[in-house]
Design goal:
10% helix
């Protein structure tokens, strides 16, 4: 695994054992409505990224360009605030699915890599991270473009999509392992 892959796995792995105290979604300031821009009922779409805030520190998750193959997840130790001059953010700790895991320990963080072919080149792209919690709940943070509640997320797009309902995974993210959110 290349150095970037090792860094991604390391930062994601550091989440295991931490308890989630708060979660922030970042959205870009366009198309504002009365409803939260991120709330789509079956999934949340934070078009720029999220911060997982724990007493041990904050981990930011957003998207970044991966060659000609599109976008993939980028993890940072620390909040995304510094690099987002035009983004707005809000706490979603009291919203599903986060309200159910607030204060719960993350037992595992699994990065899902997707092989993407662009022309003659194939590259492994970090497309999702699955967070499993002590209470048996799993939440997936996916890099992809939202296409609606009945159509698959386009993998390697420039949104961050949060999925937590195992039954919706085959429809919304058929490119990911079926056991990503458990059964």
């Amino acid at each position: 695994m290349a150095r970037a892959g090792e860094q991604i796995e390391s930062v994601a792995g550091d989440l295991a054992g931490r308890c989630v105290d708060d979660v922030r979604y970042y959205t870009l300031t366009y198309g504002m409505t009365d409803e939260p821009a991120w709330d789509h009922g079956t999934a949340h779409v934070a078009d720029y990224g999220i911060d997982l805030i724990t007493s041990e520190g904050t981990t930011g998750i957003t998207w970044t360009q991966y060659g000609a193959s599109g976008y993939g997840l980028r993890f940072s130790r620390g909040p995304l605030l510094d690099g987002l001059p035009r983004a707005e953010f809000c706490s979603v700790a009291r919203e599903p699915p986060w309200a159910a895991v607030l204060g719960e320990r993350i037992t595992a963080a699994r990065v899902c890599w997707l092989d993407v072919t662009s022309g003659e080149r194939e590259a492994a792209t970090p497309t999702a991270v699955a967070l499993r919690f002590a209470g048996g709940i799993s939440i997936a943070v996916v890099c992809g473009s939202w296409n609606g509640p009945d159509r698959p997320v386009f993998p390697t797009g420039d949104d961050i999509v949060i999925l937590w309902q195992p039954g919706t995974l085959p429809v919304l993210a058929p490119f990911l392992p079926g056991d990503l959110l458990g059964s």
